[in-house]
Amino acid sequence: MKKRNLSKTVMAQKIGTSRSSLDRLLDPNNTSVTLETIERAAKVVGKRVKFELVDI
Predict the structure, then answer these.
(1) What is the DSSP string of 30-51?
(2) Is the pTM for the entire model greater than 0.85?
């Protein structure tokens, strides 16, 4: 967001969500964020989401 000079309000508008929803998305302790929301947010900042399953 900093690199693209996006405020939380503008970022939320671009994702199509509320500012409070964006705050939940950015909260590392919130585990209820959907993959769809993460994908939309990534796209706004010029990124894509990549999930990988690895052996433990």
Answers:
(1) -----HHHHHHHHHHTT-----
(2) no
- The count of structural domains within the chain is 1
Q: How far is CA 16 from CA 10, 39, 42, in A?
A: 10, 12, 13
pLDDT in tens, the chain (56 residues): 999 999 999 999 999 999 999 999 999 999 999 999 999 999 999 999 999 999 99
Domain containing residue 37: 1-56
Distance CA(5)–CA(10), nearest Å, equals 10
Q: What share of the chain is helix, strand, coil (3-state, %, to 5)?
A: 45, 0, 55
Domain CATH code at residue 51: 1.10.260
